[in-house]
Amino acid sequence: MAEPEPPGVLVFVYGTLTDPARVADVLDGTREWSFVADATLRGLHRVDGQYPTLAPGGRVDGRLLQTDAVAALDAYEGVDRGLYLRAPVPFADDGTVDGGTDDESDAVAVYVGDPERLGVDEAVAWPGAGDLGRRVGRYVAANDVAVEPR
After folding, report:
1. Residue 50 lies in a domain
2. How many domains does one find in the chain?
3. How confident is the model at residue 98 (pLDDT cuts 50, 70, 90)?
4. Which is the most buried residue in 12, 92, 105, 130, by most CB within 10 A?
5. What is the pLDDT of residue 96?
6. Is residue 135 domain-resident?
7. Backbone angles phi, psi at 78, to 5 degrees
8. What is the three-state SS of the chain?
9. Is residue 40, in this structure, part of any structural domain at all?
10. Greater pLDDT, 3 or 91
11. Are the C-beta atoms of residues 49 and 119 closer than 8 Å to each other?
């Protein structure tokens, strides 16, 4: 009999958090979590630097992590230090992922790093004005950006 999925948020991970050992370490072995599916994020692509981040256009493969420990992930990603922000991205669920999203919004959390702070290898331009969070949010809303299980 399969164990029930943990409650919580679906997070699309595309870097170090795709490694189960890293997730267990970040969540200190005390939090519930599970990889619920491999997934693709369309509309954004990975760029590498000191740490990976995302940029407009393309696609990137990763995994869907379900957990109730988003605060621990935020701390790991340096959200409070401005290294990354957690952005909601539409979830194109085909019904294959048990557990769904954390609410009725059908969104998956995606960490997007500040390219200026992460030393990325290529120029990254998020269109528009305002802080990175606003630019990312507008780009996601205006383009075909979504996470889909594969």
Report:
1. yes
2. 1
3. low
4. 12
5. 64
6. yes
7. 70, 35
8. CCCCCCCCEEEEECCHHHCHHHHHHHCCCCCCEEEEEEEEEEEEEEECCCCCEEEEEEEEEEEEEEECCHHHHHHHHCHHHCCEEEEEEEECCCCCCCCCCCCCCCEEEEEEECHHHHCCCCCCCCCCCCCHHHHHHHHHHHCCCEEEEC
9. yes
10. 91
11. yes
Nearest in space to 118 (alpha carbons), one of 89, 83, 73, 74: 83
Residue 76 is part of a domain; what is its CATH number?
3.10.490.10
Structural domain includes residue 33: yes
Range of the domain at 121: 9-149
**Res 101 pLDDT > 50:** no
Percent of the chain with pLDDT over 70: 87
| For residue 103, pLDDT beyond 60 | no
- Percent of residues, the chain, with pLDDT higher than 90: 75
Pair 44, 60: CB distance under 8 Å: yes
